[in-house]
Amino acid sequence: MVEIATALPKPGTGIRGEAGRIGYLLRQAQVAARNAFDRALAEFGLTLPQFSVMTIVDAYDGLSSADLARLSMLTPQTVNQIVRNLEGSGFLRRTAHAVHGRVLCISLTGKGRALLPKARRRVYRIEKRMVAGLPRRDEAVIRRWLVGIASEFPPR
Known about the structure:
With 156 residues, this protein is mainly alpha-helical. Helices cover 59% and strands 6% of the residues. A two-stranded antiparallel sheet has the order 1-2.
């Protein structure tokens, strides 16, 4: 296959701009954000999905892998691999549920608790840049709109 050297449109132009389809623009923004977060977390050896899993485990200690997959919006297979990797790095641990012994409950380790605030600072810096220049009421509208989309079209 031969590639033709043409300049691709930059974000903000053509269908990649305000006239573009809302679904495409959401995806474009999501990919840009994901790339920025992954670059910021690379120093800690984390990816955005790993950071998300650690953040959710911190908020809801003792979740099962199945519940963690639902909350993190990742497949069970992906969550299992992430948990194994984070467990191998010493950031997470799994322990048997007190009643349902086959269910493993996931928790942060001391090492994970020490890393998470450092990673959060990086992520929050990027999030702050995302809303820089937006009046608070506009940010609140965007937040309600995004939550509304997630509520209207929940995952199966």
